[in-house]
Write a structure and sequence with these properties.
A three-stranded mixed sheet has the order 2-1-3, with no helix packed on it. By secondary structure, it is of the alpha+beta class. 54% of the residues lie in helices and 18% in strands. Helix 1 runs antiparallel to helix 2. The radius of gyration is 23 Å and the shape is elongated. The structure holds zinc ion (2 copies).
Length: 117
């Protein structure tokens, strides 16, 4: 049997690493299995975006509730305040997601460094 480790990632994928290979070249090594509270590299941008959306959705829900309550109570000052919070949250979410996509593309498209002699 090959020896190594298996990480069970939060996204449902497994990351497998080998310490030593035997002549069977097994797909899965004998060794430690650990659960990791993180997504694998391939899933990380999506995973992060999902987390961000969830985070902002919660905040937006809260502000939207406050906003409609303020409207019902004819509290226009408060309503304006909550409304601008909602707009800011929407802009913030879009900005964050753009940033992550940009980072990820940079990671993927990074050209090979020329080797120095
Ligand atoms: Zn093996
Ligand atoms: Zn994954």
């Amino acid at each position: 049997m090959c020896t190594g480790y298996i990480f069970k990632m939060a996204c449902g994928h497994e990351q497998v690493g080998f310490h030593e290979r035997c002549y069977h070249e097994c797909k899965r090594p004998e060794g430690k299995v650990r659960s990791i509270e993180d997504a694998c590299t391939a899933c990380r941008p999506n995973h992060t975006i999902t987390e961000i959306c969830r985070h902002y959705d919660d905040l937006l829900d809260e502000q939207t509730t406050l906003y409609s309550r303020a409207l019902r109570l004819d509290d226009h000052a408060k309503a304006r305040e909550y409304y601008s919070n909602i707009v800011n949250l929407r802009v913030g979410r879009k900005y964050k997601i753009n940033e992550i996509n940009k980072d990820f593309e940079m990671d993927v498209d990074k050209p090979e460094k020329p080797t120095e002699d």
